[in-house]
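Inverse folding, one chain.
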């Protein structure tokens, strides 16, 4: 006799997981086509702790009317099929830890016992007329059914909450005490032919089956995780990776190994201080870098692993050179620093293919390459369109001041015309002159004249060279450039220009009424002469 009283340290030691042969499959679930015999009145109350006697005897079990050899042990004084007994005992220990005492009321039944209960049911002459399955068809005869002490305090609630964790299920709706086990649960239990163990490289299972771990390149390990084969290149516990060869990677988990094919993903297996891993063919083993995967896709390598992005989604291409792989904007060269016009008002600055943009239009300018081939912002006071080549010359601002355009189309510091004069457009340079007298002759005495040879006094010829047809009379933004950068012109905002115009109109009115001034020399409406479209001098 081998009687244990729970809890038992010995039972825990036997609760070992086996890699080989621990599970006995007892067959498909047989349907319950009739109620099992039950007598809930017979249930013991406040049963003693579960006891188990692993001494085995053989008997005839029945499944669907067919007999088979069955191994029976004793639990709580009742005969129970061996594997069902193990599963039940593990569950009973768990229930005890929760303060609930399970007990078996009825376990395995012989054919004679089932015939008796069935006869009671048919004749209603014994066993309180309780229903019973036909002899040979009860799962008490197949060894899977147990009637439990569900009337005892807490037992049914505990079974409903935890029974499934141990592989037990209720199968007869009208009989809360009838529970069946068909496999499942954590395994373990004290009964069986052998204690799982290692015999050298040979693993011995609960069913006494033996297998040589060495035949699979493994060793037998028996520790707190149970008895199992551990692969030669794997540690007993934990996870690890290793290269089987330059294509295949092995992954260890508590000694068990699984393999994967790096080459299926265009990768190779590398193993170094960072551990074994798949490294993409286009990536170095270690470090972080970028690579072009094709003309549009860029990949970022990190210790061999790759993530990719699409340059084309940003209007770019992937380029790779000594500076590394990167996305280069379609309008930019692969390398170096330059400027490009993206449209008539947007200028881009390229740095090794990357672009940043600015808005020439916000400064009253065009983005232009005309004349120089170099993209820059050209003031609309210096060129009539983005295609027009800017010329170094003087021109008039809407506020009446005169300003010099550089050959790059930038505006230098504007200058006031002398009192009593206004700016007139002329070829090749605008100049300051009197409305009455017309533009002064280029005698070199005009302090505002940029040069002595200002050309013809015919102001009309200069009109077409103005920044735009309405540049003289509309309030608009102008710009001047002092620092030479493509986006650094000092702003003369439209509001500021209009304020300046109003000041000059008032100044013109005052001078028109001044006694020392010839009234007829100023425009009747006080407007700057260049701003009066009817002025013959602006014509
Ligand atoms: Zn039953």
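Residues assigned per position:
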């Amino acid at each position: 006799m081998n009687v244990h009283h729970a809890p038992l340290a010995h039972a825990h030691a036997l609760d070992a997981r086996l890699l080989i042969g621990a599970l006995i499959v007892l067959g498909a679930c047989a349907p319950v086509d009739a109620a099992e015999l039950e007598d809930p009145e017979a249930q013991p109350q406040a049963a003693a702790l579960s006891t188990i006697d692993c001494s085995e005897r053989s008997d005839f079990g029945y499944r669907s009317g067919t007999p088979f050899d069955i191994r029976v042990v004793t639990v709580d004084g009742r005969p129970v099929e061996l594997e069902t007994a193990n599963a039940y005992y593990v569950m009973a220990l768990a229930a005890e830890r929760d303060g609930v005492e399970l007990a078996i009321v009825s376990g395995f039944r012989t054919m004679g016992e089932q015939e008796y209960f069935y006869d009671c049911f048919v004749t209603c002459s014994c066993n309180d007329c309780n229903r019973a399955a036909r002899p040979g068809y009860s799962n008490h005869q197949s060894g899977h059914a147990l009637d439990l002490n569900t009337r005892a305090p807490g037992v049914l609630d505990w079974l409903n909450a935890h029974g499934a964790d141990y592989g037990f299920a209720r199968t007869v709706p009208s009989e809360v005490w009838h529970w069946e086990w068909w496999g499942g649960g954590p395994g373990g239990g004290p009964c069986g032919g052998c204690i799982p163990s290692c015999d050298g490289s040979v693993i011995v299972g609960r069913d006494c089956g033996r297998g040589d771990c060495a035949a699979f390149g493994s060793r037998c390990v028996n520790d707190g995780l149970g008895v199992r084969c551990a692969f030669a290149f794997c540690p007993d516990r934990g996870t690890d990776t290793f290269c089987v060869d330059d294509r295949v990677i092995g992954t260890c988990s508590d000694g068990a190994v699984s393999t994967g094919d790096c080459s299926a993903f265009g990768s190779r297996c590398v193993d170094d201080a960072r551990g074994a891993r798949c490294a993409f063919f286009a990536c170095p083993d270690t470090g972080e870098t970028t690579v072009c995967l094709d003309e549009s896709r860029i990949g970022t390598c990190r210790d061999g692993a790759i993530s990719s992005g699409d340059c084309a989604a940003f209007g770019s291409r992937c380029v790779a050179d000594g500076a590394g792989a990167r996305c280069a904007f379609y309008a930019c060269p692969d390398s170096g620093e330059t400027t490009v016009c993206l449209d008539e008002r947007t200028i881009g600055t390229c740095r090794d293919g990357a672009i940043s943009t600015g808005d020439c239009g916000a400064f009253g300018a065009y983005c232009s390459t005309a004349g120089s081939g170099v993209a820059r912002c050209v003031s609309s006071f210096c060129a009539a369109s983005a295609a027009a080549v800017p010329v170094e010359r003087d021109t008039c601002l809407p506020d009446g001041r005169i300003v010099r355009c550089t050959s790059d189309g930038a505006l230098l510091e504007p200058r006031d015309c002398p009192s009593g004069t206004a700016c007139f457009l002329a070829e090749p340079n605008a100049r300051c002159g009197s409305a009455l007298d017309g533009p002064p002759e280029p005698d070199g005495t005009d302090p505002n004249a940029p040069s002595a040879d200002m050309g013809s006094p015919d102001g009309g010829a200069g009109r077409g060279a103005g920044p735009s047809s309405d540049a003289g009379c509309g309030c608009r933004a102008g710009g001047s450039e002092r620092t030479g950068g493509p986006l650094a012109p000092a702003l003369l905002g439209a509001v500021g220009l209009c304020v300046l115009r109003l000041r000059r109109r008032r100044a013109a009115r005052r001078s028109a009424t001044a006694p020392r001034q010839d009234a007829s020399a100023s425009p009747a409406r006080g407007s700057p002469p260049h701003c009066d479209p009817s002025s013959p001098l602006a014509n």
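The pocket of zinc ion is lined by residues 36, 38, 106, 140, 145, 147, 178 (CB under 6 Å). The chain has six helices and 34 strands.
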